[in-house]
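## tool: complex_structure
## caller: assistant
## args:
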Amino acid sequence: MRSGLGRLLAGVGLLVVLVLVAGASLVLHAGGRGDRELHAPRLGPSLEHPFGTDHLGRDVAILVVDGAPISLSVAMIAVALATVIGGTVGAAAGIRGGVLGGVLMRITDVVAAVPQVVLVIVIAALWGGHSTMLVILTIGLTTWMGTARLTRAEALRVGAADFVQAAKATGAGGWHVAIRHFLPHLLPVLLVAGTLRIGNAILLESSLGFLGLGVAHVTPTWGRLVWEGFAGLRDTWWVSVAGGAAITWATVGANLLGDGVRDLVSREVD
Amino acid sequence: MSWLLRRLLASLMLVAAVAVATALLVECAPGDARSALAEGMGRSYASTHGAVRASPWQWFGGLLRGDLGTSKTHGRPVAVLIADRLPRTLLLTITAALLQLALGIAAGVLLVRRRGGWLDGAVSAGLFVLDAMPPFWIGILLILVFAIGLGLFPVSGTTSYVFTQPGWLARVADSAWHLVLPATALALGGAATIARFTRGGLLDALSQPFVRVAAAGGITRWRLLLRYALRNALLPLITLIGLSFPGLLGGAVIVEALFNWQGIGMLAADAVRERDVPVMLGMSVLFATVVVLGNLVADLLYAAADPRVRGRAR
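## result:
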């Protein structure tokens, strides 16, 4: 667990289990088992129902499994979006510099000055939708600032290096230098920043779900499951516990993966 | 001094920019958001001016005069609502900040002191999992175990409805009793980050020549760690506290909703549910102000603690 590779593998292991679970859910649904059978309501955890059943008699273990595809895909796509935005802003600011760079970084400061959770819920509430797309856009548009700052710092470092100066001195064009000389150095930074933010995105999505703002779907996302369980905490505590455990599992996996990738990449750079 | 002045000015401009961005957000939002804002603005304005303001830009103008509009659900000026509830949120977040600092530093010191042992492994793994737990779930687990299960603390609320004992001391004790679970829920996630930083800083400091000299002098390992290494490791933590403000405030929204803690976080959560636009806007400006202030104070503290920074900042 100490080494980068160990963390990476542990993280991948945890996530692979989830992806298999999510895949199984999708396959079962595709096979016409879309309607899950109902059991007696408020059954405690047992061998038959490891996470018990909720107030409607739904098997909580199956709810967790069914929530996996939504919760995971929303986080992944949102992170991809945030990485593209942050990478573009940071690279433009770091490579071009000047007025453009200053303006871009001030915009970054402004967006970063409002706490992420607050920004996310204000946008989600103003647009008032429960669509998956809105949630992805909201999380993507509010989590790119750290990536932008990291990318800019790396671009500034690369820009001062001799090989870039040499390329410019030989008369290489701006785009050529950016793609040929900057991009190979920025990609590892983006990879690390991206994987490290997946856990955060899972937590944000679940926070939205917990406040009743997130994706509204027949099958609740994990955050929504915790929210639904909270209403009946005294009778059916296992609902909230199961939802939160799934979120924690996924976030631990994503964070291990991110740490591992960072360790491996930084060793490569050294 | 001019450095301080420039820093202050930059902070002010940042808050103003957040306000403009917030107004822009409403301008872009679907129509009913604008009309909801106009309604909130209208009530306070119509009573004194007999006219209705509609545009987000007029909200911004009002903001400059300290008028944040009127809440749809509470029927009172947003500024009054905020002023009413801010002390409770400050109590919660500052307690949580101190708690996470104490827990994080203690865990970090423990990790370094027992480096490589089973305790190091167990605490490291525990912190890693803690870091990954959503704050509302930490809160729910605390409620389950300590409020519902053991009955040690109240499930929710800021104070008891009925006081059996008179006197201010009983009131303080009652508030503290209600504060324990929400503050812990808010503090635990951040404590993991602080522990990680403390550990890194301590390991750095331990490899410095002055620590090695002290060690060669034959002082005890605890003394070496606490007296020599920790002092240096604490410096970067000042910045970290400033940086942890957004997380604490964001977490407060969730934790207050969870514990029915009547602070501004709860106000924000309610506003979001009720689409109370003036409250939401006032909230984001307020949160930005606190975050920017937090960073400013952290910078000032850092400059006060480390003379080397002052030279560079000028």
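## assistant note: The two ends of chain A are 21 Å apart (CA to CA). Chain A touches chain B through 46 residues (CB under 8 Å). Handing back to user.
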